[in-house]
Specification:
Distance between the termini: 57 Å
Helix content: 25-40%
Shape: globular
Largest sheet: 6 strands, antiparallel
Number of strands: 13
Radius of gyration: 24 Å
Length: about 500
Amino acid sequence: MELDKMDENEWKYHGEGNKSLVVSHVQFSRVLRLLKYPAEDSENPPQTVEQAFRQIQNIVDFSSNVMSSLLGEKFIHSGEVVKLPLEFVRQLSIKVQHQRPAWRCDKVMDIYSGCALCLPNLTSPVLHQPTHTPPLCIEIKPKCGFLPSSKHVSKDIKTKVCRFCMHQHYKVANGKWKRRSLYCPLDLFSGNRQRMHFAIRHLIEEPQNNFKIFKGGQCIYSSKEGSDDSLDLNSLLHHLRPYFLYGNNRINSHMTSKAVLNDFIQVLVNALLSGGGGDGGVVTDRQGEGRSFCEASLFNKERIRHGSQGLPSDSVLFRILQTQMLDTQDIEGLYPLYRRVEQHLQDFPKERTRLQIDGPYNEAFLEKMQKCPTEDDGSVEYAVAKVHQYRVAMTAKDCSIMVALVPSSEEEEDDEGQRRLRDFLSRPPAFSYSVSILDLDPKPFDSIPRQLRLDQKIVSCYLRTGGALPKGSLPPLPGIFTAAEREDCTLLFHPV
């Protein structure tokens, strides 16, 4: 990528989050991530070029030095900071503006610093050969996969109903979403195939911003915030069906919708449980059977046929869960420790650098966090270590997983008869896949009071309503799998 010859017409809008906007190259597997700030600051940039550069470098360092060590290097792509020509950035901003969702336009793209983060485009993996079937990429934001057991938890409901399920009620009550998602992270992180299948099924039925499907780099399935538009399942099936035809189905091209969806979920579960190479040991239920279930999940415990399998220790879900569980105090136990650090910094402002409150995120930061004493000795060092652990855990609770799937038959140029036999025997068909973790930004130290207030609002909303949804909310969509099953009742007669 020649930075002095950048052309905005070679880049297209890819997506955005709360703090950054992403564009992707039309030809190469590359994305640029640019900072955003509130629209009212559009005339006066809120930070200098040096501060913008440092903010992006902090993201790179946190990902490569801290999260990579905890989650596993094989899953992480940290990228690099690049300095772009300002005219290119301004023209790019004009070009993508009309493609941005209206509800995201309260913030504008940074056109003053020219700093950006350059990363591989994980929705368009390099292992794909352009002449073949485009790869499928599935992005999942799994959220927090455990119930807190900290002695500091003041409301018993937090040890029974998971944060995600409670937060759903709060979001629907505040109009952020029109209907509740029935997905529960504890089912996905259980390692039990039935529960994982159940969780992914509900992600498909109500994706919100926790589930997206890309085909050849284009998003073909996702939700729009605040919208009650029904998702086009027929369109999704149209995209998925060619990937899951096998055996006789490849010849007569009929495969039930239910079978397509079930095979798709099965392939996804296989990828999430794989270690990305080598057989890892299986870590069985780490919390005791009672605490690995959320009372708000609709999964019926009686349905489990094979007990609790647990997660393989080299799987992406296990590594994420272990990192999430660095939050041992819960926000309620952590807040007094945050106040201890804050008071210390008010008394000794220069200590902020030594304690690495704003980075640098290097080996010393990781060591501070990992060498935390088991008991609180009243020191500021203990409090800082716990705050760092909490911030790392929050990043793991908010990360995304990208699973790239490429049909294996395209990788193996073998005899046609052999391939037909393999397709017939392989159910579902085999895929080459890669698994990555993204969205690994450090959470600001100063966000902790806001986290406590949000936690209190979510819990009180859930307790006030007794877990019932507000009157204005829409009921869950009739299960798309039920619709698929109805469609599958059509009798088909084929000439013999």
